[in-house]
Amino acid sequence: MLSVAICGAGGLGTRHAENFRAIPETQVTLVYDVVEDAAAALAEKVGARVATEEGELFGDDVDVLVVTTPTPLHSYYTLKAAEAEKHVLCEKPMCRTLEQGEAMLEAVLDSGITFMVGHVLRWFPQYARANALITAGEIGEVGVARTSRINTMPAGSGNWFQDYALSGGCTLDMTIHDFDWLLWTFGPAERVYSVGAQRQMPPLDYGLTTIRFESGAIAHAEGSWADTGAFRTSFDVAGSDGLLRHDSTQMSTLTIQRRAGEEGRAAVQVPASPAAKSPYMMEDEHFVQCIITGEEPTVTVDEALDAVDLALAALRSNEAGGEVVELS
Amino acid sequence: MPTRLSIMSFAHLHADFYATAIGALADVELAGVWDDNAQRGEEAAAKYGTQFFATPEELFAPENEIRGTIVTSANIDHKRNVLAACEAGVDILCEKPISTNVEDARAMIDACEQAGVQLMISFPCRYTPAFSQLLEAVRNDELGEIVAIKGTNRGQNPRGWFNDPSLSGGGSVIDHTVHVVDLMRVLLGQEVVKVFAEIDTVFDPDLPCDDAGILSMNFEGGCVATLDASWSRPDNYPIWGDVTMELVGTKGNASVDLFVEHVDAWRAADSTFLWESYGHDANAGLIADFARCVETGAPVPITGYDGLKAMEVALGAYRAADLNDPVGLPLP
C-alpha cells in the first residue's frame, strides 16, 4: 500500500485525493495546505490526517506526494520530495520558469523517483483518439491544427490565477494542455508567435498562439479566460487526406434540467458526458502503475518541460507585442 | 427603365451568383456579358438571357446604355477590365481581392477617381444580417473595447486559376484574407499596423501556390487578431467553407458564424452528406446596393481603398512569412 500526501487542498488536490482514496494500491494519509480550513475539510472528506507542518510531507510514512499548489511552488515541493525519495505527481504546468524546471528535471533523474506532470488531456478519450488517428496517418500530412480552450477567469485560492507572475495567465496555466497534446501529436515545435489581451478590471486574459512544428504542421491554439459561459473545448485538425473535428458543446450524452423553485434550488442545466472512468482517474492509475512497475510515465519529464518551454515562448512573443520566438 | 448592368468575365464562380442576384431584382437588368473566353461568355449570356459581346468596347457601346459592370475575371485581369470600364464611364463592382499588388490597386483607384466613376469592391459578408447586428452592437458599445478577434475563412480549394499565382497573385492567403480583414476593419474602424503569418503548401503538396495560412495582426488601437485563411476543408466537406469571428471585449464577447444556417442532408443516391444552406443570400444585398449606387449616384459603401487596405494585409502576410518576421503596414 502506497501512502499518499496531498500538498494543496484546492480543486485538483481534492480530485486527486478522491482518486487515490479509491485506487486499491494507494491510500491518502496526509493533507497539507497553508489554508488550514481547506486542509481540514479535505482531510475529513478522504479520511486523512492534516499535516500541521510542511515537514510531515517528507516523513518516513509518506511514499507519494501530490503537488497541487500554485504553479511557482511546484519546483520547491518537487525538489524536497526528490531529496526525500518520494514519488511525485505534479499538476500542470510543471513550473513557472525554465530554471525551476531544469532543477526539477535534474532532481528527478538523480533521485530515480517516479515523477509525472498531470497533462490529463492525454487521457481524455477524444484527444487520445485524435492523437491515435493522426499518428496512424489517417488524415495524411497535417496542415493546420486548431485548438480552443475557453473558460471564465478561474478564482483559485487568493485569486492567484489572476496574478500573471504566479500563474502565467491562461497561456501557461490552461493552453498548456493543448500545447502538450500538440507536441505529443506533432513532435518538436520550431517557432511560436502569440498575440493576446490582458485586462485587470474586469479581469480577462486571452491568447492566440500560432506554432510551427518541425514536421511542417501549423497549429493555432486559442486560450480564453474571458468567457462568460460554461467551460468548452474544441479541435479541428486538417490534413492532406482528411479532417478531424471535436466540439465539446456538441457532445453531451446526458443533460439534466431541473425545474426552478423546488426546494429552493436554482434552475440549472448540468450537461455531462458520463464516462465509466474519468480521465483524471485513468491518469492517476497510470501514475500508480508506473510507481509499482518502475516504468517511465507516458508524460515524461522532458515532455512536461517542453510544454512549459513552448508556453513561456508564447508569453514572450506576446509580451514583445508580437515577435517570432524560435525554440531550440 | 431598369438599371442596366453587365458582367465582365465568368472566370470567377461568383459571376454566376451575381447574375442570379441581378435576375431576382425587379428594377435591375443584366444587359450584356463580355468574356475573353468567348465560349464561356456565350454560354453565360444564353443561360442568363442576355447578349454576349466580343470586346469591352462593344459591350460598352452607347446604344447598350450600360450603367454599371461587375468584374469577375481572374485577379490579374481586374486592372485591365476596371480600366476598360472606367474609360467607358461605367461604375464598377470589382471582385475581391482588388488586385494582386499595391501599384495596380492604386492605379485602378486613381483612374476611377479621375474618370468620375465609382469603384466598389465585392465584400458580400457585410450584407449578412448577423454582421449588421454585430456591427450595431459594437457601435452601441455593448462589447466595450474590443481587445481581440479570432477569425476564420476556411474553405475547399477552388482549383482552376485560383491555384495559378500568375493569375491569382498567390494561393489561399490572398483568396481568403480579405473578406474577414474587411469585416474587422469595419468593426474596429481601424487599420492593421503589423502582420505575421505562417504560410505553406500542405494539403496538396503539388500545388504551385500556398494552401494554408494563419495570420496574426495588430490593429492601430491595440486590438489583436488572428485569421485562418486556409483551403483546409476537404473535398467531401458538407459546405464550401466558413466565415467566423469570435470577439473579446471588455464588456462582453460575441461570435458570428455567417454561413452556419443549414439543414443536415444525407443523400442516399451518391452517399453524400451536405449542409443545405438556408441562410440569408449576402450576394443579393451586395448587388442590390451596387445597383442603388449606380442608379442614384450615392457613394458606394465599399470603396477601392477598402479593397486596397484588405489586400495589403494579405501581401504583408506573404512578406512576413518569407522573412519569418512580422511586417509593418502600410507597405512602403
Fold and architecture overview:
Chain A is an alpha/beta fold and about 325 residues long. Helices cover about 35% and strands about 25% of the residues of chain A. In chain A, the strands form 3 sheets. Chain A has a 7-stranded mixed sheet. In chain A, strands 3-2-1-4-5-6 form a 6-stranded parallel sheet, sandwiched between helices. With about 325 residues, chain B is α/β, with parallel strands linked by helices. Helices cover about 35% and strands about 25% of the residues of chain B. In chain B, the strands form 3 sheets. Chain B has a 7-stranded mixed sheet with strand order 12-11-7-10-9-8-15. In chain B, strand 13 and strand 14 (about 270-275) form a beta hairpin. In chain B, helix 5 (about 100-115) packs antiparallel against helix 11. The longest helix of chain B is centred in the last third of the chain and has 20 residues, at about 305-325. The model of chain B has no long low-confidence stretch (mean pLDDT about 95).
Please outline what is shown here:
Chain A has 328 residues and is α/β, with parallel strands linked by helices. Chain A is 34% helix and 27% strand.
What descriptors fit this protein?
heterodimer; A: alpha/beta; Rossmann fold; Dihydrodipicolinate Reductase, domain 2; 2 domains; six-stranded parallel sheet; 34% helix; 27% strand; B: 332 residues; alpha/beta; 15 strands
CATH top level of the largest domain in chain A?
Alpha Beta
Shape of chain A: globular
**Assembly status:** heterodimer
Total helical segments of chain A: 10
What is the CATH fold-level name of the largest domain in chain B? Dihydrodipicolinate Reductase, domain 2
Q: Please, what is the average pLDDT of chain A?
A: 93
Structural class of chain A: alpha/beta
Work out the number of β strands of chain B.
Answer: 15
Please identify the structural class of chain B as seen in this structure: alpha/beta
The figure for the number of domains of chain A is 2
Largest sheet of chain B: 7 strands, mixed
By CATH, the architecture of the largest domain in chain A is named 2-Layer Sandwich
Shape of chain B: globular
Report the portion of residues of chain A in β strands. 25-35%
* Rg result of chain A: 20 Å
Query: Looking across the biggest beta sheet of chain B, what order are the strands in?
Result: 12-11-7-10-9-8-15
For the secondary structure, the number of strands of chain A is: 15
Distance between the termini of chain A: 42 Å
Q: What is the mean pLDDT of chain B?
A: 96
